[in-house]
Amino acid sequence: MKKILFCVLLLFSTVINAQLIRTGNLTTFVDSLLTNLPDSSGDDKNKYVSPNSTDRATFANVLTDIVNSQYSTAHTNAASIGYQLLQYTDNSSSPNKTYYVLLKTGVSTNYWGTFIINQNADRQRLVIQSPHPKYDTYTGAQGFYIFKNVGARAFFLSGTHRCNSNTASTCDGTSTVCTGSSAAFRISDQAHSEESLFQRGTETLSNLISNLIVIQVHGFSKVNDDPDVIISNGTKINPSGTDYVNLIKTNLLVEDNTLTFKIPNVDTDWDRLNGTTNLQGRFINGSGDPCTTAPVSSTGRFVHIEQKKDGLRNPSSDWTKLSNAIANSVALDALPVELTSFTAQQKYSYVTLNFQTAAEVNNYGFEIERSSLSNTHLAKNLQLEAHNWIRIGFLQGHGNSNSPKHYTFEDNNPPAEKLQYRLKQIDFDGKYEYSKTIEVDVAGPANYQLLQNYPNPFNPVTTISYEIPKYEFVSLKIFDLLGKEIATLVNEHKPAGNHTALFKLNPTLASGMYFYQLTAGSFVDTKKLIILK
Asked: Given 15, 114, 217, 424, which residue has the most CB atoms within 10 angstroms?
C-alpha cells in the first residue's frame, strides 16, 4: 500500500507545480520510512548509488529554497532528482505543527535519505542526524523523537543500511562493521562519504544558519570495559566555543546518574568510536577537506553520541534521557521580537489582522503574507497546494521596546474563501523569522438590498433598512409622487454591511404615498411608503 501511495504522490507532483500537502501523525509516517529502508543483503543490496555533482548541487538549491520558504520552487526542482516535498501537518501534537519533508518519490531509485525541516523551530541552529538507522538499532526513531521534542531546525535520516553498497568510500577511516575485518567505509555510509547528501546538506545549512550545531545519534554493542556512552566533538581537541559535549554529559547524568562515559578530548587515550573521521564533524570543526584532512581545532558545535542499547536506545520510554539532556544543553533561541497575540477576523468586506508584541529588539517591521487554502483533495489526507504566499502589506516596527505594542492591518477585498495569514518579522540587519499561521474563512460579499420600511403605513416614524457589500458613498432620499425630494436620510460614505435609517414624519406632509430611493455606486432601488395620519 505504501508504494502505491507514493506513486500517487509522484503522479500529481509531475502534473502541478506545487508542493504536496498532507496531514497525519508524522511519527507514524517516519516509522513507515524506517521500516522500508533497504538493508545490506539480498534484493536490497547495492541499491545505494551516490548522487553526482549535479544532483548534489540541485539538492543544495532545493534545501535553500525550503529554508527560504520557496516551497513550490523546491518541489519542482526536487522532482529532477527523484524527490518530492511534503508540507506535513502533524496532528499528533497540540497545537498542530507543520514540517517540510523532502523524500524520494515512490518510483525513484535514489536512496539518499529523508530530510525534515521545521521552519518554526525553538532551536533554529540545531540539526539532529541519524546516519545509521538500520544498523544502530532504534537510532532513527530516537533521532526523530529528539528532533521533534527539542524543537530542532532539521532532521537528517539516512536512506539505506550503512553497508548497502559494496563500493568503498575514498575518505579517511576504516570499520569492521561491513566485512568483519578492518576495511574502508562504504559510500552508503552517510557519515563517511563526501558525495552524500548528509554532507552536502550539512554544508548548505551551515551557509544559511550561523553557528550551526549538529548532533548525531549512534549506537554500539557494549563489551568488556566499555562505558555506557561515548560523546565526542569529532576531535581530541578542547573546543574553542561552547562545550556541548560536556554539557550533554552533565545533563545526562541528571537523567540517569548510573551512566558511565568516555569523552575523547578528555580521555585522550580512548580511540574507539570517537568520531574523528566523521565528515560532518570534520566540516563543522573547520576542515577545508573533510574527506582526507582532520581539523586542527574544534568549534564544539559537532556532537557525536555513541550509546549502549538498553537503558538509552531501548525501550523507547528511555529516549527522554538523551532528549532532555540535549534540550537542557542547547538553549532556546532568544526572541528578538516576542509576539504575544495574532488574530484575524472578517469585518464586512475586509479582514482585520491584530497582533501584539511584548518586547522588540532590532525590529525593522512586519511583512504581512497571505495564502489561499482552496485546495483540491487528491487522496485521503493528501492535497496539492493551490497558491503560494504573497506579500500584501508592511507595518513598521518599533525598533527596540520593552513595552507592549499593538499592530492592526486591514486586508481589503480579500477573495471569499479560506485564507491563511502569517507575519514575516524582519530585523534591521535583514534577518527574519515567520510567525505562526492563522486561518480565517472569508464569506462572500453581501448583496445590495433596499428592504421594506417598517412599519408601513406609518405615523410618526418608520425604519428603513438597507445592505451594501463594500465601503462606498450612499444616498437615501424620500420623494413625493411628482418626484420632488422632500428629505435626505443618508448622504455619506458607509462601510459594508447592514444599516438602518429613521424617517421622522414632518407635520406638514399630507397622508398618502411617497417613495424612498437608495443609491450606492451604480446600484439604485426605489420602494414606496405610505403616510397615514
From this structure: 217
- Within 174-216, residue ranges assigned H as helices are 197-208
Within the chain, all domains assigned CATH 2.60.40.1930 are found at 449-531
For residue 253, give the C-alpha cell: 547524568
Predicted TM-score of the model (pTM):
0.67
Tens of pLDDT, residues 369-416? 998 765 433 333 334 344 478 999 999 999 888 789 999 999 987 887
Beta bridge partners of 347: 350
pLDDT score of 354 more than 50: yes
Band of the pLDDT at 3, cuts 50, 70, 90?
Answer: very low
Q: The domain 449-531: what is its CATH number?
A: 2.60.40.1930
Exposed, middle or buried, 464 (CB in 10 Å: 0-12/13-18/19+)?
buried
- Separation in Å, CA 135 to CA 164, 217, 218, 517: 10, 12, 9, 82
Q: How far apart are CA 68 and CA 74, in angstroms?
A: 10
Q: In 3-state terms, what secondary structure has residue 163?
A: coil
Positions of CATH 2.60.40.10 in the chain: 337-441
How far is Cα 428 from Cα 396, in angstroms, rounded to an integer?
A: 11
The Cα 416–Cα 420 span in angstroms is: 12
Find out if CATH 2.60.40.10 is the number for domain 337-441.
yes
CA distance from start to end of the chain:
81
What integer pLDDT is reported at residue 381 of this predicted model?
Answer: 37
DSSP annotation string for 358-417: EEEEEEEEEEEEEEE--PPEEETTEEE-----EEEEEEEEEEEESS-EEEEEEEES--SS
Residues 6+ away with beta carbon under 8 Å from 60 = 200, 201, 203, 204
Q: CB of 75 within 8 A of CB of 103?
A: no
Distances (CA, A) of 209 to 2, 154, 304, 487: 34, 11, 20, 68
Q: What is the CA radius of gyration of the chain?
A: 32
Give the H or E element holding residue 449: strand 449-450
